[in-house]
Structure formats: structure tokens, C-alpha cells
Amino acid sequence: MKALIIGAGIGGMSAAAALKQQGIECDIFEAVKEIKPVGAALSIWSNGVKCMNHLGMGHIMDQLGGPMHYLAYQDGLTGTVMTQFSLTPLVEAVGERPCPVSRADLQSQMIDWWGKEKIQFGKRIESVEQSVDGVTAYFTDGTQASGDFIIAADGTHSKVRAHVLGYETERRYAGYVNWNGLVDIDEDIAPANQWTTFVGEGKRVSIMPIADGRFYFFFDVPLPKGLDEDRNTVKQDLTRYFAGWAEPVQKLISAINPETTNRIEIHDIEPFDTLVKGKIALLGDSAHSTTPDIGQGGCSALEDAVVLGQCFAKTPDIEAALLDYQSERRFRVKDLVLKARKRCDVTHGKNMQETQAWYDELRQEKGDNIIEGLRNTIVGGPLA
Questions:
Q1: Structural domain range at position 145
Q2: What's the CA gap between 379 and 336, in Å, rounded?
Q3: Where is the FAD-binding domain (predicted)?
């Protein structure tokens, strides 16, 4: 049995790992000639780390995961601590630590683990078709490939999604712009073992440690889309948007390298129930494009892969296994997309009264409520 996997991102590589465990041959096709991940880093929460362990790649998380042992919110304007607490109770409750990681390093190591020479790069999908005999993928370079089924992990701009759904989807602008990148750890900005977030005015600045003595940072600002801003104006833009904010925020703005700082207008896609059509299945962002507001985008793709493998472990019938995958995943991923959307709106001041109420709650928070929310999300995964 052979699977065609469209996309060599986190979703595609984890799907290949899961199918390989079931003795299924995988041919992987990646659109770009050279991997250049969008986004500097990402949060792999405990559910995602468990998936990496299950897929045989736990050592990658051990190497790349930063020492994130505490969590704190601080007032963006004054710098005063609103709440600060240990993440140890969360780790003890779910049995695994969270791992903020460099996205580029994670994807690179997953590809190296599989074998870069086994992946076909520069293969941008144009269309797919299926018959009783199997599936065929057609690429923009005029080539094609055939197999028994297709896993489309081709991202938020998926070309395969319309084939599965029968219609084109539209991305929904979430209302804010995110700048992200990496800087050397500086404890004048934030503690080296803590996820620190400054909030105020419907904006936020977040810093978390990853491996090799680096902070992953991101700035969020509610803005209209399509502004004439790019890397050339990043420091001026952030200095303007965060004028009057606390000194650590100013130090962070001074420390960033515009050449390696990403500016992204954040979108999601309205959740849908159909993830499978016959012998073709959507996985990762192609199936559930979400905002990053609860840190579950990468984790969801890893969960998809684990469930996909579990479904093929039950039956060698391709269409039955894929329908089982759809049944197991569609409500979970819809819930995560909508949770992220709700958190996005509160965090970014869609209704400033609700956002202010959240700030007030943070000042009373001892950690229990936040940890319980994180725990509930984590234990909803397939390896709870």
C-alpha cells in the first residue's frame, strides 16, 4: 500500500511517520525547492510532545524544546506582574512538558529523520483525481504520481481542499497583525525559563525560551489588513504601536533583527465537517486553519497524524480507515479552531469591555484557572 503525501511540513512529515509505523509506503511531495518555514517558532504543548514521542521523534523535542517552567502576564504599560506561576502542576497533571521550539529547526530535523533524499521537492500540486484503482496527483511541472490514497497536508492555501469539499473556502482575517522572530535571551527582557506576556490596549507582546539560548518573541496589534508595512519598517512600526510601554518591551524592540522578523496578517478558516473524500484526506492546516491564539496549530497536525495511524492499525481498508479518521478528528479540530477564535477576540480587544475584564481577572489569577484551561485542551487529544 502506498500513500502520496502532499506537503513536507509538520503535518506531512508526522503523517508519514504514522503511516510508516503501519507498514505503509509513503511518497512525499513538497511544493518549494527549499524549506523556508513561515513563523520563527511555535508552541508544542504537552499533547503535541506526546504525539512526537508516539511517532518516534521525541528526541527532537528533547533537543529543541526550551526550558519553559513558569508562566507570567505583565501589564504592558507599567511592567508590573499581573500573575506568575509554575507550570509544574500542569506537567504533573498531563504527564509531559510543553516545548516551545524553532519552527525551522523542528521541520528540518523531522525531514532529516525521514531522509531528505526521499522527499521530492519543487512539486507543487495542481490537481488530484481518484478512481477504483487508486489516486493520481498532478503537479505544475507536468509530472504526476500514483498511489493508493492521498494525504493532503498542503497548508492553509490547500489546492486539494476544494476537491474534498466540493467548493472553495475563504480565509477569514482575524483582525490583527503578528510580528515574530528570535533574539538572544536577555533577562532584562524576561526570565530565561518563563513564558512572559505583556498585555494592554488589546495588544500583546510575548516571549518564550527555546533551545540554544534564544527567545521566541511575537507582537500582536489589532490593525486593518493590507497596510504598507514590511521588514523595512518593522522597528519604526513597533516603536509607534508600543509607545509608552514598559522598558522590557522597548529593549525587545531594540534587540530584534528586521531581516529575520516576520510580519503576518493572521487568518483562519470557518471550520467544516468534511475532511475526507473517498481515498483523499485533509490533514493539518488544510483541514483546520486556525489562529495561533491557543498554540494548537502544530499540535493539531501532530494529533491528526497519530489518529490517522491508529485508524489504519484497525483496518487495511483505505476508505474505512479515512472515514474513521474523519469521525475521530472533525469535532476535536472544530473545537480548537473556535476556541482559538474566541481567545483571539478577547486578547485583541474586539470588545474592549471583555478584554478589560480579562485583564482584571489576570490580576486575581493564581494559576489554577489557566492551568485547568490548558489541561482541558491537552487531555482532549488522542494520547491523553
A1: 2-171+268-380
A2: 12
A3: 2-337
The answer to whether position 214 is within a domain reads no
Tell me the helices (H) and strands (E) count for the chain, helix number first.
12, 18
Q: Is 47 contained in some domain?
A: yes
User: Is there a domain that residue 199 lies in?
Assistant: no
| pLDDT over threshold 70, residue 37 | no
- Indicate yes or no: pTM above 0.90: yes
Please indicate, yes or no, if residue 249 is contained in any of the structural domains: no
CB atoms closer than 10 angstroms to residue 184: 10
Q: Residues 169-218: pLDDT tens digits?
A: 999 999 999 999 999 999 999 999 999 999 999 999 999 999 999 999 99
Which residues 6+ apart lie within 8 Å of 248 measured at CB? 74, 79, 188, 189, 190, 198
pLDDT digits (tens, 9 = 90+) for 124-170: 999 999 999 999 999 999 999 999 999 999 999 999 999 999 999 99
> Residue 16 to residues 55, 165, 284: CA-CA distances in angstroms?
10, 23, 13
